[in-house]
Description:
Among the domains are: 3-57 and 66-169, Immunoglobulin-like; 275-346, no CATH class. Helices cover 14% and strands 20% of the residues. It contains 8 helices and 20 strands. It is elongated and about 90 Å long. Residues 1-62 have low confidence and may be disordered. The site of one heme C (HEC) has 18 residues, from helix 7 and helix 8. Residues 241, 245, 255, 257-258, 261-263, 265-267, 276, 278, 285, 323, 328-329 line the site of one heme C (HEC).
Amino acid sequence: MKFLHAAGVSLFAVLLVLPARAAEAPVVPAAPAPAPAAASTPAPAPAADPAPGASRPPAAAQPASPVRLLHPPDLTFTNDPKVKVFAFRPQGGPPVVPVVNGKAAAPLDGEMFPKGEVSLLPGMNLLQVGETTVRVFVLPGAAMETFRFPSGTQGRDLVFQAYRLHPALDDGCDGCHTVEGGKIQAKDQKEACASCHDDFTKASGGKKPFVHAPVASGECTACHDPHFATRPKLQKLEKDCFECHDPFPAAGTVHAPVAAAACVSCHSPHAGPAPGQLVRPGNALCLGCHKAPHDRHRSSTVLGMLTRVPEEFPKEAGELSCTGCHVPHQSQNGGLFRKPREELCRTCHSV
Length: 351
Ligand code: HEC
Ligand code: HEC
Ligand code: HEC
Ligand code: HEC
Ligand code: HEC
Ligand code: HEC
Ligand code: HEC
Ligand code: HEC
């Protein structure tokens, strides 16, 4: 269980990475003051590999409280020349003016959570908000999600990525955040998320659902980025379910949807009507994909003398349970059998 570990991957950690990287290899002109002039290089000329001054450590005796940029992150790719800008400055201050390729754009709206939209040029753009400068590559109308730009140095490409924004950001940050003592705090997720989405833990149709542990404990961000992500559905985990669960052995027979990592075809990530958050209970789960499996072994009615179905064998309304003979994930035995074939048959047939 790497549960706690996965849950701890916060956006904050991501925010901290940038300055560290920039410090490693400071290709930034060594000017002490923020130098928008250095950023006025015309569009596609990103010779430098490391961030051109991603963000500077906040100066010790800074009068205004620092503005931090949430979106866009460094190395953003977009096919839309207009990009949404979301920043935060829990202590408030004067209007924040974004600088695009050295030119001041219209000020952002809002004091603690400044937001707005800036127009960019096709190609490489340097967008400066507060003390942070990020690189945004624009290719109008392009359909790709990842864009590689040869860096020219050390043969390493700059990898720009497209991000999908959570529509909730348009409604403001305060749906999910409070500001206390000049610090930004996340509200309880169970309540904040459920104000716009279904509460998965609630009973529906008179039945109490079986709820996945991290959902029951209100840790939506164990799996989702609350702000934006490169993947659909705001998914942030590289290894999805295997971030917390051990993968199944690849040996023997592996059920096709398991081999394809299509775990959510059987398990809801949130809650379901059967234990293990299964999307359908009992044999209906299997029959959703196997419309007509072998016709014998469906009925538990014993016709022949040599067959006797033990009391404890799992059954469902006169039918044998599929999972009485087959396992759902992987088996050392052929046919996804629960036991070696001979042994399995002898459970009921005395031949
Ligand atoms: C849909 C809910 C939601 C919205 C809307 C939202 N946030 Fe967040 N934000 C969160 C949650 C939840 C966390 C905690 C992340 C975690 O636990 O991984 C967080 C974390 C953060 C953090 C990191 C600080 C920390 O506590 O780790 C910052 C900074 C932040 N949000 C800024 C913003 C800004 C700025 C906006 C508005 C543009 C915004 N958020 C909108 C839910 C949201
Ligand atoms: C264990 C990981 C995990 C947790 C925890 C989790 N989700 Fe999800 N969520 C997913 C996955 C995976 C999908 C995509 C499902 C798919 O592709 O069918 C998803 C999809 C969604 C969607 C898109 C609509 C839908 O149902 O497919 C919403 C909304 C959502 N989650 C909200 C939440 C909220 C709110 C919480 C916290 C109460 C939460 N999730 C907790 C993994 C998780
Ligand atoms: C202010 C309303 C609001 C709040 C609060 C909110 N969401 Fe959403 N969320 C939306 C809207 C609107 C959509 C897009 C329509 C939809 O899929 O329901 C969305 C979509 C999503 C999706 C699917 C994105 C996709 O690519 O389809 C996920 C996952 C999600 N939200 C998770 C969360 C989580 C987790 C929280 C709490 C941290 C949360 N939301 C809080 C409004 C909200
Ligand atoms: C952030 C960590 C995390 C992620 C990601 C996660 N789970 Fe879980 N899951 C848990 C925890 C914690 C439990 C409860 C402890 C346990 O039974 O192992 C649990 C329990 C389960 C159970 C019930 C186990 C039982 O014995 O009844 C199933 C089934 C399950 N998860 C499936 C999934 C699937 C499918 C995915 C991917 C969509 C997934 N989980 C992703 C943390 C996670
Ligand atoms: C074909 C449907 C199906 C698929 C696909 C599937 N599962 Fe399951 N899973 C089940 C069933 C059914 C159970 C209940 C097991 C039982 O009753 O013996 C289960 C049980 C579990 C459990 C509880 C502990 C255990 O091993 O019995 C976990 C954890 C789990 N599944 C995770 C996953 C993950 C992760 C994936 C994706 C790699 C996945 N499952 C794909 C049907 C499926
Ligand atoms: C999401 C769709 C899906 C679900 C749900 C599903 N299966 Fe399958 N299953 C497949 C696919 C795809 C194959 C491989 C192609 C085929 O043989 O039809 C397969 C193959 C099998 C095989 C043959 C394995 C072999 O290699 O000999 C068995 C047995 C089986 N499934 C049993 C089950 C049982 C039992 C359940 C319910 C727990 C179930 N399936 C649920 C999609 C599914
Ligand atoms: C009494 C044990 C038993 C039960 C219960 C059982 N099966 Fe099977 N299954 C077998 C055997 C034995 C085979 C090997 C082929 C055969 O002899 O029919 C098999 C083969 C399969 C296959 C491989 C392809 C095929 O059709 O031959 C699938 C898929 C399958 N079963 C699905 C299911 C589903 C779905 C259920 C529940 C509705 C189920 N099985 C219940 C014993 C069982
Ligand atoms: C859970 C009990 C159970 C298990 C395990 C089981 N069977 Fe059956 N089997 C039955 C029942 C019930 C029937 C149908 C009624 C009857 O013939 O008495 C049946 C029917 C059959 C038939 C058809 C017999 C006929 O007269 O039409 C064959 C062949 C068969 N089983 C082979 C197998 C094989 C091979 C295995 C092991 C892979 C196996 N069975 C495992 C319960 C079982």
